[in-house]
Design brief:
Elements (H helix, E strand, L loop, with lengths): L10 H28 L5 H21 L12 H24 L2 H9 L1 H13 L1 E3 L1 H18 L7 H28 L3 H24 L18 H9 L7 H25 L2 H22 L6 H30 L4 H5 L2 H7 L9 H4 L2 E3 L4 H4 L5
Antiparallel strand pairs: 1-2
Helix pairs in contact: 1-10, 1-11, 2-8, 2-10, 3-7, 3-8, 4-6, 5-7, 6-11, 6-12, 7-10, 8-10, 11-12
Length: 378
């Protein structure tokens, strides 16, 4: 039988473009943010506040020009604040975790988001994942761990903030998907709905953490505050900051809008797990790009670990994508073809489930009463 290729209007085609847009915009915003931080504006919460304010103004303008449609089912204010606060908390806790722990432990926290998301989905939403998908995720996480985790320096306070970072990130990504389906809204409509509360939350954190000097190391030789947004504003007014910094910050606002648009859209079309897979694939691509375009002399063993880890991780990414595609098409996958029948049945006990794979994104609902109903012979 002839199977049509995915088009831009199909769910798979849209998800593909969202994934490509997420990778490109994420890499671009990292590079532009580095330029902003190098210019002396190293205040992530304040920068996030600018991004969210820009998002609010952008959608207000689209709404005024009749180029944007409000969701038919309004999202309650409590849910808006909950989703927005989880998103801002994710950024904040990840930054604090990085400052208190080693880079190696920071990478470990990012890797644990996938299994934590699976556990939350199972225990809070009674949604489980097939063993085949778990296998591909295990291969992916093992590869990324080999490539990125070198030293793991752990401190009790850092561990606490790392746990908070993982939980807030997992919940934020889960809610991005569930709230879109619950209220029948698109990714852009959800982004519009929560952007005001995101701006409000990041503004509060910016004022509390970055607007004033709270530590002695933030003072210069004369005892004056030199490391705060207020001090940077004074330096900008005096012309002591690099030219074009305002334009660069504005560029990050456009890129942040694109990153969030692609992220909300990708999770809405697929799942938080697929979003994490795309993120880890992006990490591998960045490492590959570093090897090719910016070769540096260093520890040979670490270089070998990076190459081996990226190879293993990309195999996991390809296997995950293959399993998702085969599931959505209702066709046998490579594991069905190469594994003996008993092993195939163990890897996917719900192979012949009546639920549409495209609706569950490789996830199948766990019903505790199944064991009671399936008492007859196979």
């Amino acid at each position: 039988t002839f199977t049509a290729r995915p088009t831009l209007g199909s769910p798979m085609g849209a998800a593909t473009w969202y994934a490509i847009g997420n990778v490109l915009s994420s890499v671009a915003i990292v590079l532009v943010n580095k330029r902003v931080f190098a210019a002396g504006f190293h205040f992530p919460f304040t920068l996030s506040f600018f991004h969210f304010c820009f998002t609010v103004v952008f959608y207000r303008l689209l709404l005024a020009c009749n180029l944007f449609e409000l969701p038919s089912s309004p999202m309650p204010e409590a849910d808006k604040f909950k989703v927005a606060f989880a998103g801002v908390a994710s950024i904040g806790f990840m930054n604090v975790s990085l400052s208190l722990n080693s880079v190696g432990f920071y990478q470990v926290t990012k890797l644990t988001i996938v299994p934590v998301t699976l556990l939350i989905n199972f225990y809070m939403y009674t949604v489980s994942t097939t063993h085949k998908v778990k296998l591909s995720l295990l291969i992916l996480l093992a590869g990324v761990g080999i490539a990125t985790v070198s030293d793991v320096d752990l401190r009790p306070l850092g561990l606490a903030f790392g746990v908070l970072a993982v939980l807030s990130t997992a919940m934020f990504q889960i809610w991005q998907g569930t709230k879109q389906k619950e209220y029948g809204m698109s990714g852009t409509q959800l982004q519009y709905s929560v952007s005001f509360y995101q701006a409000l939350s990041s503004c509060g954190l910016s004022l509390a953490v970055e607007s004033f000097c709270l530590a002695p190391q933030q003072l210069d030789g004369r005892g004056e505050c030199s490391d705060s947004t207020m001090a940077f504003l004074s330096q900008w007014r005096a012309g002591r900051v690099p030219d074009g910094i305002v334009g660069t910050i504005l560029a990050t606002c456009f890129l942040a809008l694109l990153v969030n648009w692609c992220s909300f859209g990708l999770i809405g079309k697929t799942s938080p797990i697929t979003f994490q897979v795309v993120g880890h694939a992006k990490t591998c691509l960045v490492l590959i790009g570093g090897y090719v375009f910016f070769p540096v002399a260093g520890n040979a063993q670490q270089l070998y670990n990076n190459i081996a880890g990226v190879t293993v991780a990309m195999f996991g990414v390809v296997l995950y994508g293959h399993l998702k595609h085969a599931s959505s098409e209702g066709k046998p996958d490579c594991l069905d073809s190469c594994c003996p029948a008993p092993i195939s049945r163990c890897l996917d006990v719900n192979k012949y489930a009546t639920v549409s794979p495209s609706e569950t994104e490789g996830l199948t609902r766990h019903d505790p009463d199944d064991s009671k109903r399936n008492t007859g012979p196979d």
